[in-house]
Specification:
- The complex is a heterotetramer, with two copies of chain A and two copies of chain B.
- By secondary structure, chain A is an alpha+beta fold.
- Chain A has one domain: Molybdopterin biosynthesis MoaE subunit (Aldehyde Oxidoreductase, domain 3, Alpha-Beta Complex).
- Helices cover about 30% and strands about 35% of the residues of chain A.
- In chain A, strands 1-4-6-2 form a four-stranded mixed sheet, with helices on both faces. A four-stranded antiparallel sheet of chain A has the order 5-3-7-8, with no helix packed on it.
- In chain A, a hairpin with a 2-residue loop joins strand 7 and strand 8.
- The longest helix of chain A is centred in the C-terminal third of the chain and has 18 residues.
- Chain A is globular.
- Chain B has one domain: Beta-grasp domain (Ubiquitin-like (UB roll)).
- Chain B contains three helices and five strands, in the order βαβααβββ.
- In chain B, strand 3 and strand 4 form a beta hairpin.
- Classes of the chains: A alpha+beta, B alpha+beta.
- Chains in contact: A-B, A-C, C-D.
- At the A-B interface, strand 3, helix 2, helix 3 and strand 7 of A face loops of B.
- Strand 2 of chain A pairs antiparallel with strand 2 of chain C.
């Protein structure tokens, strides 16, 4: 059963892995994905993540449940932050644990693809020129087709 | 019914949520959008281009042919950009 | 340029990520893979990893160089432990950072597939019944074909 | 040449490394294995089943047709099982 958190505060990846392992020794593979606020041009001051309280948690739980149905995971954790974040800050963490490394990789990859197109979050970027909503990318939608 | 709006849809409607009585002739999300757009150009600017908005009914993604009832929470928002 | 370590001591994943980021904000995606000592039956007391000093570092550097040639990575880190390890202990860490999440996932996956069949390490397991060398798995060799 | 052994190959040979003069008629790894196996049954037990061993020359993986010289470091070991 996946553990889902939607929170304003930061997370520590090592602490989250330790908590999810909980002393178990029957996994051999732990994959993490961390998404961070990316500033390519050096013009981004900050980003504010708006979300849909209630639906966000429900949607992340549905996506994680689907991953757990597809792969033999012994642990699954999703944390997504909201609110104002600065370049380099953590946005999202996915952890998958399995006896098999390809299962852990595939499940984390799947979780991110579905989270990107299903979880109700919207990014608003602040630059020196003002603020604006980030457009969704067609490539994120196309990435879902890999899992049909 | 409860209507909720996010991101630029919220900004264009000018509020994050509102309660409204479901009109008798509205059966689907598409009917509801047509009704709202007919009310005034504020809803038209927010919801008129249905290719650019996404809908959730009771916190689940749905398409525009999904039925709606007066007990529903219906959310309108742009394609999501989290992660 | 990937950073490679072959060491007896443990690693902290968060610290390694922070060191690899080094304050940069131009990546959006960080993938880690951690391999741990797996004890499925509860009979494993410990495992000793033998390695080929010199070749190990060289081989890991070659594998990482190949990953960096194939994907647009902004950071790449490989740590592999040797010596005696107990169930649940960390064995290997791979970190990949990129602007693109699929590049980070694919590069980490590739690194592990190649490390598994190229890096000169050998596992010797100790159970109550004695000790023995772990056999290589055909599936690890087959996994390489995905990258041809 | 320097010969180095790992894991059960090391255990069967009974040492982790040794220095040996390259015989004049040995040109490849396969020749070297045949030479060692001909010396005694200890090398035979360690290296005789070439499907089960892997070879590195100067710390790079090679196949049995790889040439060897007296200046080389030649390693024999089972398929690797790290990670």
């Amino acid at each position: 059963m996946a553990q889902i958190s939607v929170q304003a505060g930061d997370f520590n990846i090592s602490d989250e892995i330790d908590a999810l392992k909980g002393g178990r020794t029957d996994m051999g593979a732990i994959v993490t994905f961390t998404g961070t606020v990316r500033d390519v041009t050096g013009e981004l001051n900050a980003m504010t993540l708006e979300h849909y309280p209630g639906m966000t948690e429900a949607e992340l739980a549905r996506v994680a449940e689907e991953a757990e149905a597809r792969w033999p995971l012994v642990g699954c954790r999703v944390i997504h932050r909201y609110g104002r974040l600065e370049p380099g800050d953590n946005i999202v963490l996915v952890i998958t644990m399995s006896a098999h490394r390809h299962a852990a990789f595939d499940a984390a990859n799947f979780l991110m693809d579905f989270l990107k197109s299903r979880a109700p979050f919207w990014k608003n970027e602040e630059t020196g020129a003002g603020s604006g909503w980030v457009d969704a990318r067609e490539s994120d939608h196309a990435a879902l087709k890999r899992w049909d | 019914m409860q209507l909720v709006y996010f991101a630029w849809v919220r900004e264009r409607v000018g509020k994050s949520e509102e309660t409204m009585q479901l009109p008798g002739d509205v059966e689907t999300v598409a009917d509801l959008i047509a009704h709202l757009v007919s009310i005034n150009e504020i809803y038209g600017a927010a919801l008129g281009d249905t290719d650019k908005i996404r809908i959730a009914v009771n916190q689940e993604h749905v398409s525009t042919d999904h039925p709606v009832t007066d007990a529903d929470e219906i959310a309108f928002f742009p394609p999501v950009t989290g992660g």
